């Protein structure tokens, strides 16, 4: 007995389908064979009936003879082998018979007789009332002229045919049983070929659910089962990778949090002890303030990422000029760039307003993160080129540096959450993940191209909106803004000095 499960269901369904198909085929086959045999018998008798027309002329010569002589003459000349011949009057009474099977003067009322009286060749299949034997009767009317009109009825037994049909039926049933047995064996093998891999995959997934993420589904499975096994293995690999990234993140963020907290705690205790001159106190308070801002930045970055993951980030959208956002970003990172002796240059058309529909603060956060990363991974005395342009209804803002670049291995992972190429550089590894989420919230895209040792180009593409600025609203900041340490004479120089 097959236990309950997929195996039993598959075998049962296959068995039922094949059984019903075989039953239908054998029924049609036996019906066709029976029809063939019965039609053969009928056609043989019918051919004999058509030959009775040849006897009408000689029979008419004996019309003057006694009726008994006519009947005897008919019985002799119309006889058919293995068939009883009966001569009936128009009332269905048996006048003569080639055998004693039906007594003379008996009245028959089968359908073949009524059909024959109507001028047709009648046929009837049924059982003899006396013997119960199944027979076929074929009748037709024979008109010899005058009052000599008879019904000639041929009666033949179907027992021999039925016995042959029974043998054929038993043979067909035996073939059906053999076919069903073969189907049963094949379906069990087929079901096991499906169920065994499923059981293996289920066992492996149960181990993974218990925390055994080092196990893998083994076996060269095909089609959907192979895809399922590959997906499960890939899922386990990604979980292990995600856990490793989270562990690295926890280690990194713990270090990032501990360092400023240590500085704050140390200077707080030092200042609390008293006895320091105002200059040292000012330095200590400055360090406390700087480290506090750093902590706030780390916490805000994690809060932003949490909001994005929970779809709770709310944007205050309006018409935003991307060129102005990029220029403000350059002013914000000016001090950091100058400290590292990195030069910033903006290339754009100052006469155009590159407007998008978005949240200005969040878009500024995007470009601050991109430009800050470019400065962080750039060499001293290198250049960072920023550009803003419009193509095919899209605002394209690019940040290109000539820094250390990113390898192909890391480039595909750099926008994953918690991922950091170099953990010694600090940070949470959430910056680019947040940046991508924010850009996608603005229905835009962000792409990265990089070559190890040659630099990186980050391109942000956003849908543009129609310009609605009048002449009095045009931006007055320089289109080609150079912000190197020599402070070239331009409108941006005065803006930086005022800030």
TrEMBL record:
Q: Which domain of life is it from?
A: Bacteria
Q: What is its main location?
A: membrane
Task: Tell me a Gene Ontology molecular-function term this record carries.
Answer: kinase activity
**Known catalysed reaction(s)?**
ATP + protein L-histidine = ADP + protein N-phospho-L-histidine
Coiled coil (UniProt feature): none
Q: Which UniProt keywords apply?
A: ATP-binding, Cell membrane, Kinase, Membrane, Nucleotide-binding, Phosphoprotein, Transferase, Transmembrane, Transmembrane helix, Two-component regulatory system
Gene3D superfamilies in UniProt: 1.10.287.130, 6.10.340.10, Histidine kinase-like ATPase, C-terminal domain
Q: What class of enzyme is it?
A: transferase
For bias kind Basic and acidic residues, which ranges apply?
Answer: 484-499
Q: Where is this region: Disordered?
A: 467-499
**SUPFAM superfamilies referenced in this protein's UniProt entry, alphabetically:** ATPase domain of HSP90 chaperone/DNA topoisomerase II/histidine kinase (SSF55874), HAMP domain-like (SSF158472), Homodimeric domain of signal transducing histidine kinase (SSF47384)
> Is Ribonucleoprotein among the key words of this record?
no
Q: How does it sit in the membrane?
A: Multi-pass membrane protein
> Where's the Histidine kinase domain?
252-466
Identify the residues that the record assigns to the HAMP domain, covering every copy. 192-244
Q: Which residues cross the membrane?
A: 12-33, 165-186
UniProt EC number: 2.7.13.3
Tell me which InterPro entries the record gives: HAMP_dom (IPR003660), HATPase_C_sf (IPR036890), HATPase_dom (IPR003594), His_kinase_dom (IPR005467), HisK_dim/P_dom (IPR003661), HisK_dim/P_sf (IPR036097), Sig_transdc_His_kin-like_C (IPR004358)
- UniProt-annotated location(s): Cell membrane
Q: What is this protein called?
A: histidine kinase
**Which source organism does the UniProt entry give?**
Paenibacillus xylanexedens
Source taxonomy lineage? Bacteria, Bacillati, Bacillota, Bacilli, Bacillales
